[in-house]
Structures
1.
Amino acid sequence: MKRELQHLTPKEAYAFLQEHPEALFIDCRSEIEYWFVGHPVGAVHVALVEAPQWARNPHFEDQVRKLAGDGLHRPVVVICRSGNRSVTAGEALLAAGFTHVINVVHGFEGDLDEHHHRSSVNGWRFDGLPWEQG
């Protein structure tokens, strides 16, 4: 049976996380983005790619598997900056055997506006969902 990545808006993902406290919330951005740009409250950092080389983390799936603890059936919600890396991360988790993986569309910062700024069109922060910095 082929598993498919589920896609939820930030508000939908937040509601899902509230309704499913057993879900694992993964922020797959780089460590620099996670700490200095900010991150959703409750998100655990596991980088899919890391600066300065922006190389793929070969241990990503294993690190998430270890955090999941309960096994591959625990829901996993994945967020990144704009919803692109989290698709790659989510598909990698499905390929690794996870059964319920959700991508947060628009990510933490959302799409660029006409001035090339983020967090002004859509995304977790734009929607006013809980986040912290540092």
Note: The CA atoms of residues 37 and 133 lie 7 Å apart.
2.
Amino acid sequence: MSDEPPKPPAELPDDLGDAITDYSSDQLRRIAHYAEALAEYQEREARLAEKSDSSDIEERSADLPDDVPSKATTTIKEINDNRYYYWQWRDGDQIKSKYKGPVNPDE
């Protein structure tokens, strides 16, 4: 290890390199951990966006409401001993649901 402080990468904005120079080693490790997690998140989002852009556009189901995305799936929820179909999809970190109808007991 060198006795000289490391130099920031040329690709790093000067103001960012200057801003973190005086941070404690603990703060720098937290920043590094955050930066690694953020990079992984952005890479995953880019892969998902690329996958959705490259996949064939699916036909919307005839019974799919306009306010429900085509990626939604149907799930069954039991409420007070009654079973119901719900459309369910992910919206960011949340799972959204919309009532579809009762489950036919003959199914």
Note: The mean pLDDT is 83.
3.
Amino acid sequence: MTNITKPSEVKRDWIVLDAAGKRFGRLLTEAATYLRGKHKPGFTPNVDCGDYVIIINASKAEFTGANKAEAKLYHRHSGYFGSVKSEKFGDLLTNKPEKLYKLAVRGMLPKTKLGKEMLKKLKVYEGSEHPHTAQIAKEGK
């Protein structure tokens, strides 16, 4: 018989991922796996059973593609005519790396209320310091 994890039974851990020297996409797929809870044996798709993820050294990740900083664009739209706003990948990386990481991970999570709750457990910091030292965090892979 299959055991279904209930929301009250979920035990959440804190996991620290260091982005220095790692590929951007590979790091984020690992983060999405931890946020979703797929690394746990009691994974249930309709329950938020994932862990909190802290990404440090966000500005030191490696990126592939020689022209990506200028060619890749992130768009947003308010719904009004002519209100499409675009930001270049390179500008986001230098000015707001936290936003870049959240946008990328958001695409890997479910597009539901549950996915929005999972994304709230992602904490991204540009430097090597983070304010979550009170939580006993484990090192990621």
Note: The two ends are 31 Å apart (CA to CA).
